[in-house]
Amino acid sequence: MSFEIPTDLTPELVPLSWLLGMWEGSGRLGEGTADSEHFFQRAVFTQHGLPYVQYTAESWLTDEEGNTLRPLSVETGFWALDRKLNDADVGPGLSPADIVPALKSADEVEQFRNDAGGFDITATIVHPGGIAELYYGSIKGPQIQLSTDLVMRGQHSKDYSAATRLLGLVNGDLYWRWDIAADGSSLEPHASAILRKSS
């Protein structure tokens, strides 16, 4: 599947550009066995001229035929190249940047390519129930691997200590898998899905 890189894209988002758009599809909770519950998910990756991709995913439990039973969850966050921020970057808060974008050309982005030929990335994802995840990982072509460096929980949040996520583009579809460590267990399969681009 070919895709066009938006002409207004911040140069450092080019490695993440294949994610941009709306993706929809179905998946299974847990290990995806015959008794695993079904869900439908809509994930949206957008960019706003700044050096990050904004992410939102909404999920609903479904029956085997795909009929919606009830809302499952929502998560939202930001994905970006992992690099030291400088005066050309916005923040903290509403502090304006000196220059946008901080990296102005493909050559400047290339200096961040890692030893494996990809790019180190970070993703910050927030969930209902007072949970936020900080992931570090890498992107190489249409494949992403992420592991949590930190999981922040509120004082009344459920037990949740670590996670990994894998995403890959296969024949134009977005395949993903999410493993989590919760309730005192080590990493276990949590969910997986195949999403198709809808816009």
TrEMBL record:
Give binding positions for heme b.
T33, K158, H190
THAP4-like heme-binding domain: residues covered: 12-197
Q: What is the lineage of its organism?
A: Bacteria, Bacillati, Actinomycetota, Actinomycetes, Micrococcales
Q: What does this protein do?
A: Heme-binding protein able to scavenge peroxynitrite and to protect free L-tyrosine against peroxynitrite-mediated nitration, by acting as a peroxynitrite isomerase that converts peroxynitrite to nitrate. Therefore, this protein likely plays a role in peroxynitrite sensing and in the detoxification of reactive nitrogen and oxygen species (RNS and ROS, respectively). Is able to bind nitric oxide (NO) in vitro, but may act as a sensor of peroxynitrite levels in vivo.
The keyword Heme is assigned to this record: yes
What InterPro entries does the annotation carry? Calycin, Nb(III)_bact/plant, Nitrobindin, THAP4-like_heme-bd
**EC main group:** isomerase
Domain characteristics, as noted in the entry:
Forms a 10-stranded antiparallel beta-barrel structure able to accommodate a hydrophobic ligand in its interior. In fact, this fold hosts the heme group, which is located in a wide surface cleft.
The entry sums up its family as follows: Belongs to the nitrobindin family.
- Keywords attached to this entry: Heme, Iron, Isomerase, Metal-binding
The UniProt annotation puts motif GXWXGXG at 21-27
Q: How is the cofactor bound?
A: Binds 1 heme b group per subunit, that coordinates a highly solvent-exposed Fe(III) atom.
- The EC number(s) given in the record are 5.99.-.-
Q: Which cofactor does it need?
A: heme b
This one is known as Peroxynitrite isomerase
Q: Which reaction does it catalyse?
A: peroxynitrite = nitrate
